[in-house]
Amino acid sequence: MVDIISNRVQEAYGSFRLPGMFGTGGTTQTVEAAGGFSTYAMLKRFGEPMRRERQMNKDNERKRREESLYQMKDSAPPHVMPDIRTGTSELACRFCTPNAPVQTQLDDADRRRTAIDILRVTSHAGRRTDSDATDWGVWCPHLAQAARVKKFDYPQVAGAVMAEDRVQQALDTACDEAVNEKRQELIAAGQSDESFDEDSYYNQMLKKHQKRAERVLIGMRSKLSHLALTITSWVLYKLLPCFISGVAAHPGQVDMIKRAIAAHPDAPLIFLPLHRSHLDYIMVSFILLNHDIRCPLVAGGDNLRIPVFGNILRYDGAF
After folding, report:
1. Does the predicted model carry a pTM greater than 0.85?
2. Between helices 279-289 and 226-239, what is the axis angle to 10°?
3. Average pLDDT of span 244-266
4. Which DSSP symbol is given to 116?
5. What angle do CA 214, 217, 218 make, to 5 degrees?
6. Which whole-number Å values give the CA distances from 128 to 124, 139, 152, 255, 305, in the listed order?
7. Is residue 231 over pLDDT 90?
8. Least buried of 19, 42, 81, 299, by fewest C-beta within 10 Å?
9. What span, in angstroms and rounded, lies between the C-alpha atoms of 34 and 31?
10. In whole angstroms, how large is the CA radius of gyration of the chain?
C-alpha cells in the first residue's frame, strides 16, 4: 500500500503543470519551451539564477567588509608612551649600560643562587623556621600557598574599549559606507533616492555594527579572576607532579622582576616564552602568581575555542 501511494504521488508530481502562470500548452515540451516547469530539474533550474545572485551578493558584501577592515588596519594607531618619570637605562643589562647607577639585572651573586622547585618549596606555607604547630599551612602547604598569594585587582576593560575614539571612528566609517552603498543600489535600480531616509538607515546600521563589535570583543576578552587563579594554582600543585618531576624557578630572576616592577610600576612587562609546549604560558603565570607578582594576560588564540577548557583559560588570563 505504501509503495502504491508513493508511486501515485511521484506520478502526480511528475505531471505537475502551471500553464496559466508559466506558459501555455498542455505537454511538457510546450510548457518548458514557454518558460514553465514541470519537474524537479526544472524547478532547480528556475531557482539557480536567484541562488547565484544571493551568493554573489554575499561575496561582494564580504569583500567590501574586508576592504574596509584593511583600510582601518592600515591607518597607524596612536602610540601611547607610558608615563615613566625616571630613566629606564637600569632595566638593561650591565653590558649594554655599564654606567647605569642602579642595575636591576642579575649580578654575579644572583647568578650563583640555586634554582628551587616551587612544587616542593612554597613561599607562604610549609614547614619553616618561623612556623608553629598551629599553622595549618604546615599540614596543608599547597592549599595554604594557593590561598595566601598576593591578591591583585584585574579590571575588565571590554566595556571601555567600545567607548574608544578609534572604535567609534571605525563604526562611523562602516555606517557611512553602508549608507553610500544603499544609495548606489537605489540609483542602479532606477529608483529615486529622495525618499531614502539616511538617518534612519544610518542608525539601523550603527546598531548592527555595534552588536557585531560587541560580539568580537566578547570573543577576545579575558576574564582574569583572582579566585580562578587560586583554584588553578591548587589544581596545578596536585596535577603537575603526576607527569613532571618539578618546576624550577631561579630566585635571582624572580627578584630581578620584582626590582624592575618596583622601579617602574607603570612600565609594561612582556614575557616571551619559547612555547615548546602549551605548558609554557601556564608555567609563567603559575610561577609569577606564587611569587606575588601580578599575572600577565596571555595570547591564547584558537585555544579559547575549546569547550570548557577555553573558559578556564579566559579566567586564568588568556584572551
Report:
1. no
2. 110
3. 86
4. E
5. 85
6. 10, 12, 26, 20, 43
7. yes
8. 81
9. 5
10. 33
Q: Residue 30 — φ and ψ, nearest 5°? A: -65, -40
Find cell 567600545 and name the residue.
162
| Long-range pairs for 180-184: beta carbons < 8 A, 24 or more residues apart | 181/64
Between the CA of residue 295 and those of 14, 82, 271, 276, 288, what are the distances in Å? 70, 19, 11, 20, 6
Contact between 217 and 158 under an 8 Å Cβ cutoff? The reply is yes
pLDDT of residue 29: 47
For residue 304, the 8-state DSSP code is: G
Question: What pLDDT is attached to residue 1?
Answer: 46
Q: Which of 106, 107, 103, 116 is nearest to 250 (CA)?
A: 116
pLDDT at 134: 75
Residue 260 has pLDDT above 80, yes or no: yes
CB-count exposure of residue 135 (10 Å: 0-12, 13-18, 19+): middle
Cβ burial of 36 (10 Å; 0-12, 13-18, 19+) is buried
Helix-, strand-, coil-residue percentages of the chain, each rounded to 5: 60, 0, 40
Please give the DSSP secondary-structure letter assigned to residue 190. T
Beta-ladder partners of 318:
298
Spatial distance between the Cα atoms of 89 and 100, rounded to a whole number of angstroms: 6
Q: How many CA atoms lie within 13 A of 114 on its CB side?
A: 3
DSSP assignment of 34-55 equals TT---SHHHHHHHHHHHHHHHH
pLDDT, tens only, 162-192: 888 888 888 888 888 888 888 888 777 777 6
Question: For the segment 285-316, what is each residue's pLDDT rounded down to a tens digit?
Answer: 999 999 999 998 888 877 778 888 888 888 88
